[in-house]
Amino acid sequence: MVKDLYREVILQHYQEPRNRRMLDHPDLEGSAQNPLCGDEITVFASVADDHIADAAFQARGCSISQASADMMADAIRGKSLDETLADIGRFTRMMETDESVGPDLGDLEALASVKRFPIRVKCAVMPWVTLGEAISRYRAGA
């Protein structure tokens, strides 16, 4: 069943994250917390030639926010900052609307199942919004 597959993908990224770590000297960093459920997240990225060379996160909180952050790091690695911002927009639209988001989002589509629990959507979107804000600060030279 598709629902079970999606649940398995989310649990795998939560229980065995590949990207939960610090980055030495990240070029961009952002932190956020969700006071409603206690999630806390910090995202890190190294940038080279306007592309995400590496991405990682540190987090405390629910499985949804941590799985989303782990999948996000995999999805953005190697992409330009503009492509990353476009992916942030697509992912956020997928989570907050029923409109089509264009090309296949791969494993990230598993998180669409979270929409059945509207209060948890913020958990899934939080790492992405945090990354977008960090990119904006990076580009502004802050």
Plain-language structure description:
This protein is an alpha+beta fold and 142 residues long. The chain has one domain (2-140): Sufe protein. Chain: A (Alpha-Beta Complex). 47% of the residues lie in helices and 19% in strands. It has 4 helices and 3 strands, in the order H-E-E-E-H-H-H. The chain has helices at 2-15, 63-76, 81-96, 118-140, and strands at 28-34, 39-48, 51-60. A 3-stranded antiparallel β-sheet has the order 1-2-3, with helices on one face. The mean pLDDT is 90.
Question: Layout of helices and strands, plus pairs?
Answer:
Layout: H1 2-15, E1 28-34, E2 39-48, E3 51-60, H2 63-76, H3 81-96, H4 118-140
Antiparallel strand pairs: 1-2, 2-3
Helix pairs in contact: 1-2, 2-4, 3-4
- Using only C-alpha atoms, the radius of gyration works out to 14 Å
CATH-defined fold name: Sufe protein. Chain: A
Q: In terms of structural class, how would the helical and strand content be classed?
A: alpha+beta
Number of helices in the DSSP assignment? 4
Question: Quick one: overall form?
Answer: globular
User: How would you name the oligomeric state of the polypeptide chains in this document?
Assistant: single chain
